[in-house]
Design brief:
Membrane topology: Multi-pass membrane protein
Main location: membrane
Distance between the termini: 10 Å
Pfam families: SBF
Order of helices and strands: HHHHHHHHHHHHHHH
Shape: globular
Keywords: Membrane, Transmembrane, Transmembrane helix
Helix content: over 70%
CATH architecture: Up-down Bundle
Subcellular location: Membrane
Oligomer: single chain
């Protein structure tokens, strides 16, 4: 993966996007309706990055991959619920934090895996599989935790997730197979995806800037604790299965670097903008901490599998 200016300074760009959204909210408030389309564009980019041959590595893990997938899908979500309950978040804050926990691994997880010399193939495969399963797993987990306290449109949530995740990914796969955009498509659409994520952050921050300026300490702590514990759990899962150091590092990022853009969209559409605040702060947090962790891990011995 070639690093250019946009990908190299991704973390700084996200922070600047959040600041722009806070200081110039009127510029972006009217663009709330474009968020699902921006996310679909990101998912299209994910589709362009998928190589079916990568799944061969996952097959070689046999039964281990099913347990890893189960833990990846369930641990962060239910951990988010426990953290939020313990710290006394209100209902919408708690729902938002759980939605963050249900998000699949983000493409940034693969970038961090690459930067830290982790097992990129494992990171990419887990991101692909968990993303494809999201239209089922996200509504199911949210329903299991909140069906008695909030009104949930389970079918609508599944359909929306399917529309903005699976269809764009399938189109990305088709475009890649037909080589419609030529050899530079990956680099171009990677940059477009980063720009789309940046715009999502700016719009969500602009829509919620009053709340963000008075961001509850409990919610800040919840996001930070979730990120730290998810990283720890991911690494420990690798230790449990006696995976090599490179694979352990990949799991660390896969459990903690999430596709919160998807979570922000789902939270906004089905629960309102207050529920999206956890996702916005998590997006900023993970893009600050991720490169720092990658830099710390780069000197740890691991294999060179890409």
């Amino acid at each position: 993966m070639k690093k250019n200016f946009i990908s190299q300074y991704f973390s700084l760009i996200i922070i600047l996007a959040a600041l722009i959204g806070i200081f110039f909210p009127s510029m972006f408030r009217s663009f709330g309706g474009v968020i699902p389309y921006l996310l679909a564009l990101i998912m299209f980019s994910v589709g362009l990055h998928i190589n079916i041959s990568d799944f061969k590595y996952v097959v070689n893990l046999r039964y281990k991959i099913f347990i890893i997938l189960f833990l990846k899908i369930s641990c962060t979500a239910y951990l988010a619920y426990l953290i939020g309950k313990f710290l006394g978040l209100n209902l919408l804050e708690l729902v938002g934090l759980v939605i963050v926990g249900t998000c699949p691994g983000g493409t940034a997880a693969s970038v961090m895996a690459l930067l830290s010399r982790a097992n990129v193939t494992l990171a990419v495969c887990l991101t692909m599989i968990t993303t494809i399963l999201t239209p089922i797993t996200m509504p199911l987990i949210i329903y299991s935790l909140f069906h008695e306290s909030v009104e949930l449109d389970w079918l609508g949530m599944a359909q929306t997730t399917f529309t903005i995740v699976i269809i764009p990914i399938a189109l990305g796969l088709l475009v890649k197979k037909k080589n419609i955009f030529g050899p530079n498509a990956l680099d171009i659409f990677t940059n477009i995806a980063i720009i789309a994520i940046t715009l999502i952050v700016m719009i969500i921050v602009a829509l919620n800037y009053n709340i963000i300026l008075a961001l509850p300490v409990k919610l800040i702590l919840s996001v930070i604790i979730l990120s730290i514990l998810a990283s720890f759990i991911g690494y420990i899962v690798g230790v449990m299965f006696n995976l090599d150091t490179a694979s352990r590092k990949a799991l660390l990022f896969e459990f903690s670097i999430l596709d919160v853009g998807l979570g922000i969209v789902i939270a906004t559409i089905f629960f309102g903008k207050e529920a999206a605040i956890a996702g916005v702060f998590y997006a900023v947090w993970q893009n600050i901490v991720g490169p720092i962790i990658a830099n710390l891990l780069i000197n740890k011995k691991g294999d060179k599998r890409k």
